[in-house]
Amino acid sequence: MAQPIELQPRAITVQELAAINSRQVPERYIREGIGALDASFPVLDVPTIDLQLLASSSSTSGDELDKLRSALSSYGCIQAINHGITSAFLDKLREVARQFFALPSEEKKKYSREIGSIEGYGNDMILSEHQILDWTDRLYLILRSEDKQTLKFWPENPESFRGILNDYSTKLHVILEVLLKAMARSLNLEENQFLQQYGDQATMQARFNFYPICPRPDQVLGVKPHADGSVITMLLQDKEVEGLQVLKDDQWFNVPIIPQALLINVGDQAEIMSNGIFKSPVHRVVTNSERERITLAVFCIPHPDQEIQPVEELINETHPRLYKKVKDYVSLYFQYYQQGRRPMEAALI
């Protein structure tokens, strides 16, 4: 597939658009078939997993491993608690994000992304004149490793932003190792099987999401339906405003907020590595007519040269190999994603 060419980026952010006209939405944001949001969606009972138990060698850790396998096979996501990050620190992280998006437009645009790149402040790439746009502004930054960081995109205002985000990436790296080892053990594999495929040249990419108030939540999405191209995604939800929905059994479910928890989901590359046992969930973000919403997603992504494939021990006569060997899956992912297609199509045998 040819490399997509981005058209001229939007000169105006969604936040500015919402401030100019609080009653109407431009046609390019309107989608058919979202459904009336006044009818409440059912709540998804996302399993809560204790990461301290996963990391321990106690007898209770086996039960937690069983819970983890069941959750990632059925739901593709967990609410992670006892992850070692204090509520006070998470609140600081939420606050610096709020402060950044509250800055004047001129200040935020100092960090604007460049055409053809996802890094920096702005919106999704526009690859087609007919592309329906998401009702969100984003700040996309590479966290790890430090030699991959492009600091010109890292806000200096608020002053504490860079330090807090670097601290967060260090804490998440510890969580990631615990989780990938536990995922392997839950499938009776040697604990480093997934970690080795993930590789030591992997990156963490942060995406701060700002969803302004939207007058037509019945017609506009904050983020279109998709599954993630990562191995693992860790989401810090808004502390008060819901909006994330997961597709399960052909029905959309609201994902509840647990303020002190991290919502962690499997990405496509972990589904490939587990030969389809773990499921990368399709999800979307709905808009809100009364309150804005801010979240922070961190994507854990192997190096583009790292080969990802099903673990051999998970392939047998009753469970044949489902996926090809893939490299640089994220490049493939963005091409498919902007067309509203699942990139996993390209990985299936």
From TrEMBL:
The species this protein was found in: Gossypium stocksii
Protein name: Fe2OG dioxygenase domain-containing protein
Single GO MF annotation: oxidoreductase activity
Family the UniProt entry places it in: Belongs to the iron/ascorbate-dependent oxidoreductase family.
Domain Fe2OG dioxygenase residue range list: 202-302
Keyword Iron: yes
Keyword Iron in record: yes
Keywords: Iron, Metal-binding, Oxidoreductase
